[in-house]
Amino acid sequence: MTPSKRLFDILFALLILPLVGPLFLGVLVLLALTQGRPLFYGAERMQTPSRAFRLWKFRTMTVVAADQGVSGANKAARITPAGRVLRRTRLDELPQLWNILKGDISFVGPRPPLREYVERFPEIYLEVLRMRPGVTGLASIHYHRHEEWLLARCTTAEQTDAVYCARCIPAKARLDRLYAAQASVCFDLVLIFRTIRKVIR
């Protein structure tokens, strides 16, 4: 991560913190009243092909002893009513401001992958994870809904994994490479506001 990108992340996070703070507290109260603890969900993600970190979100699913792989229709029954709203509006990702301030991720970059996919597709992620992972990016803006549609048709964990590996990983990697080729603070601002507009719409 370049010094200018890191400085932008810190300043922008501090700038929006007073704006999203009341929203953050409102979501906490909503979750406490409707689904109880734990309020947060922390999952291992990869910052580089060899360095992991804990990514934080608001909890949107019922807790199970073992959870792995991406979410398809096989996990849909676990999504709570409040969780559906948070996922649709991406408010479940508000706690990632902490990850940004820590330097785990950036505002803009490839979405941080699970370890299992980095280990299974090292040639892809060796290239993709040259950029610091982010909350949003080209892949999030242009492929997120299509990925949801593809995975929503999968009824088993095996089918979800197969579709994700065959269709989603290559498509998102192409978009991540396009972002890397033209990354800049100005382009990051454009993608952030495109994300906000997309969520509002």
* Average pLDDT, all residues: 93
Q: Which bin fits the share of residues in helices? A: 55-70%
The main sheet comes to: 2 strands, antiparallel
Physical arrangement of strands within the biggest beta sheet:
1-2
SS strand fraction: 5-15%
Query: How many distinct helices?
Result: 8
- Shape descriptor reads globular
Catalogue the unreliable spans: none
Distance between the termini: 31 Å
| Number of strand elements | 4
Radius of gyration: 16 Å
Structural category is mainly alpha
Query: Helix and strand succession?
Result: HEEHHEHHEHHH
Q: What distinguishing features does this structure have?
A:
mainly alpha, two-stranded antiparallel ribbon, two-stranded parallel sheet, 8 helices, 58% helix
Give an overview of the whole structure.
By secondary structure, this protein is mainly alpha-helical. 58% of the residues lie in helices and 10% in strands. The chain is built from 8 helices and 4 strands; from the N terminus they run αββααβααβααα. α5 runs parallel beside α7 and α6 runs antiparallel to α7. The longest helix has 32 residues. It starts with a helix and ends with a helix. The mean pLDDT is 93.
Task: Give a short overview.
This protein is mainly α.
Task: Give the topology.
Blueprint (H helix, E strand, L loop, with lengths): L2 H32 L5 E7 L5 E7 L22 H9 L6 H7 L3 E3 L6 H6 L1 H7 L5 E3 L1 H15 L4 H25 L3 H16 L1
Parallel strand pairs: 3-4
Antiparallel strand pairs: 1-2
Helix pairs in contact: 5-7, 6-7
